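Dear support,

I submitted the protein below through the web form. The confirmation email said the job was done, but the results page showed an empty box. After a refresh the structure appeared. I'm attaching both so you can tell me whether what I see now is the final result or a partial one.
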Amino acid sequence: MHESCEHESCDILLSGTGGFAARIAFDLAGTARRPVSVVIAGRNADRLNWLVLAANARAAIFGAPATFRGYRTDLLAPDAAPALISATRPKVVVQAASVQTSQVIATTGDAWSQLVAEGGLSATAVFQTLISARVAAAISAAGNGAAFVNCCFPDVVNGLIAALGHDVACGMGNVAILSNAFAGARGIADPARIQVLAHYQNLAPFRRAPEARSERPPRVWIDGQEITDVYGAFADIRLTPEPVIDISGASGVPLVLAMAAGEDWTGHAPGPGGRPGGYPVALRDGRLALRLPPGVTEEEAVAWNRAFEARGGLVIDGDRAVYTGALRDALARHSPALAEGFAIRDIESVHADMRALRDRLQDMR
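What the results page shows now:
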């Protein structure tokens, strides 16, 4: 399988074979309207073979001009990322491989999942960054201008990638989960009619019953008018406790198809250009730009999103990543040194320390 696509270019490279990557692949197979070639890359041969087979079958079912092939690789191996980019020469890279499953938000029973529940998902940021930073560095070194879409915790990780000096177009999900849920509930078919500012922390309240939602809500505009009571207006929107892959994985598919085809697109995405949180965006002439409501400046929108991690999470301060609030306190109880944050350039060594902490906590019941 590795050899079958050696030095054969593709439109979209999708790295990862988990549930999120599968949703992306299967929706590409069902919705492509122009010819598109996709390489799926991963280390589990059986899973990789199945995703390629199923994606090609789905393309046949729906009459979509999408073709899929596999590339077996372990992105944790030295030089694997540069070899992958060199062999596939993609126009768009969609990175969904991670050493930390998103299912941790629905896991209980060990001290690690308790730390994540208490301190927030930014406890996993180092794990989510590791492979994505390697892939971003490989794209930078290749210099072929491939658009990079990082699916791994993009609200926070994309800022770390940008701080390392690499380009990142955006991520998938998070703000787009809410914007599309709201649009679907209101019967809004034109994505230009709705504009949402939302941080990933805005998802948690929508996993609870309406009467239990009290945190700062996302900001929502429909037809240029801001909704003053977001929780009241969307009381019927309730997300599943586990990651809502059926929305989040699907949300970026029209965007990456547009990137691959050189077409325009309008919607929402997290982490555009390494910014914190999520925004309304538009793809025009190959560039992804913010699409803010009237009267809202980029500075205001970025500050609104950054405030969530400043209260509790991980923020970027120059060349350092700094833990804040409840997450810093939770880490300090187990590792005062890690709680102090880290130099972003040291992400590889910090990952080793965080992995040791995670392994230890997962053994604590």
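Response: this is the final, complete result; the empty box was a page-load delay. The first helix runs from residue 19 to 31.
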